[in-house]
Amino acid sequence: MPDVPRSALCALRPILGIETSCDETGVALLRWEPEQPGHGLLAHALYTQVKLHADYGGVVPELASRDHVRKLLPLVREALKEAGLTPADLGGVAYTAGPGLVGALLVGAATGRAMAWALGVPAIGVHHMEGHLLAPLLEDDPPQPPFVALLVSGGHSLLVEVEAVGHYRILGDTLDDAAGEAFDKTAKLMGLPYPGGPALAALAVQGRPGAFRFSRPMTDRPGLDFSFSGLKTQVLLAWQQSDRSEQTRADIARGFEEAIVDTLLIKCRRALAATGAKRLVIAGGVGANRHLREELAAAGAKDGFKTYFPRLQFCTDNGAMIALAGAIRLAHGQHQDGSVQVFPRWDLETLPPAA
């Protein structure tokens, strides 16, 4: 065999991706060789802790960490079996290093580092939001930079200008509640079951258009930042002053969802106009919202920009997006040293370029 750099050898072999930033344990195996046969996702496995945290109405960090300990290695074995591989076949390990819950992150990071050390392959700590941002690259028609990315999840609402992998500029951020957090908190105050966001979105389908109209926060002024805490308060007051019937609950849910979606749409249009980009990537858990996907796709068809979404199973936290982001960076020779480091808070703009 010719003398091939270690980074290139890693790119020729499958990469293991590990996601443990919050309450999903995700594992995936990916071979990232766009010009080679056998390229793409080989296997993935996911375990969600929804039932574990339901009684508490939210994620309990200590319970989340302990459940990752129980579930991670069995999921790794499951994914290897599905792909017909053994640990010796791996070319590298990628794990979520942040942002997220520190205990949960440490489970994935320590496991990933230990496996890489034992196998003699490189490891890379991946930024969770970079994983989301790159998830549409797993699809058949992937976006090519430059593009604008809307990253909306339980903990983040970001608009990012993407020139290349690792070349990111934050255009807008949340000043208080992220969009997904607003969904969950609003659902909880209206008595909907955990997890609240999906329950509220499902209920909104039964609501009557225009029965309730709430403000579109921070759209009456310049800028691309988000703020959803005031919207949550408006919904609380409307619910408290209503007859609290099931139809009213659905009507309020619809009014709330429309306000969130309209706000995100207005800000996306502004970001595209400010950057001149013609491609919009939407990723993160809220990116699975049906109404949001429909409205952004319709706006793109009208305004002349193209929208890109991951498939629904890769909108929420998963190992495939971490394997992908890690594989790209490992292929460019980037890897961690032997220490185990995690970053509960981590600025996306501080990431180095991939090449």
Tell me what you see in this structure.
- This protein is of the alpha/beta class and 355 residues long.
- The chain folds into 2 domains: 6-134 and 315-350, Nucleotidyltransferase, domain 5 (2-Layer Sandwich), CATH 3.30.420; 145-309, Nucleotidyltransferase, domain 5.
- It contains 11 helices and 10 strands.
- The chain has helices at 6-11, 50-54, 61-83, 102-119, 128-134, 179-189, 196-204, 229-240, 246-275, 290-303, 319-331, and strands at residues 15-19, 24-31, 40-48, 92-98, 123-127, 147-152, 157-164, 167-172, 279-283, 306-308.
- A 5-stranded mixed sheet has the order 3-2-1-4-5, sandwiched between helices.
- A hairpin with an 8-residue loop joins strand 2 (24-31) and strand 3 (40-48).
- Helix 5 (128-134) crosses helix 11 (319-331).
- The longest helix has 30 residues, at 246-275.
- The two termini are 25 Å apart.
- Residues 1-9 have low confidence and may be disordered.
